Amino acid sequence: MFGRRLKTKIPIHTKLLNPDIFNNVSERVLKRQDKQKQYYDKNASPLKPLSPGDNILALNFHNKKWETAKIISKCGSRSYMIENHLGNTVRRNPIHLRPTNVPYQPTSDMNFDIPEVPNADCPMTTIHSHKSKPKTRSGRIIKTPRYLNNYVCH
């Protein structure tokens, strides 16, 4: 059993005590790996090489949308440094990059103009709005505990 001799008094044939030796295990593993490689390579194709300065679409992982970007440099054999539409420099795998003809135009949230509002001496008016009481999903009204009545809760 398991290539070892049993220490038992039960009578057993001597042929059953000899372990089974598997000689071609490594060959079978290699053959199976080659077969898996052939099946994978049927539909796999190499990615297009990209060069610095190319306009691309890069996958934004937060909202799962493709956004414009530009390649800055190649880092190693399987990644690129890119500048996304917000101006951030990030490293991406070529799987998440697609070449495009759309021109890259970085947008900046910091460069917007705030129009100045003249400070008029208008009396302060309060707008009374009828706030509906907060409800749960089932429709029950949420009441705050009495001990919080003396405090302002947001």
Describe the structure.
The chain is of the alpha+beta class. It has helices at 14-17, 25-43, and strands at residues 55-60, 65-75, 79-84, 89-92, 97-99. The chain contains two helices and five strands; from the N terminus they run ααβββββ. The chain has a five-stranded antiparallel β-sheet, with no helix packed on it. The protein is flat, with a radius of gyration of 35 Å.
Rg over CA atoms: 35 Å
Q: How far apart are the first and last residues' alpha carbons, in Å? A: 72 Å
Number of strands: 5
Strand content: 15-25%
Give the H and E element order.
HHEEEEE
Major β-sheet profile: 5 strands, antiparallel
Task: Count every helix, treating DSSP H or I runs of 4 or more residues as helices.
Answer: 2
What oligomeric arrangement do these chains adopt?
A: single chain
Low-confidence stretches: none
Q: Based on Cα principal axes, name the global outline.
A: flat
The chain-level mean pLDDT equals 83
Q: Give helix % range.
A: 10-25%
Q: Reading side by side through the largest sheet, how are the strands ordered?
A: 4-3-2-1-5
Assign the structural class, choosing from mainly alpha, mainly beta, alpha/beta, alpha+beta, or little secondary structure.
alpha+beta
What's the short story on this structure?
The protein is of the alpha+beta class and 154 residues long. It has helices at residues 14-17, 25-43; strands spanning 55-60, 65-75, 79-84, 89-92, 97-99.
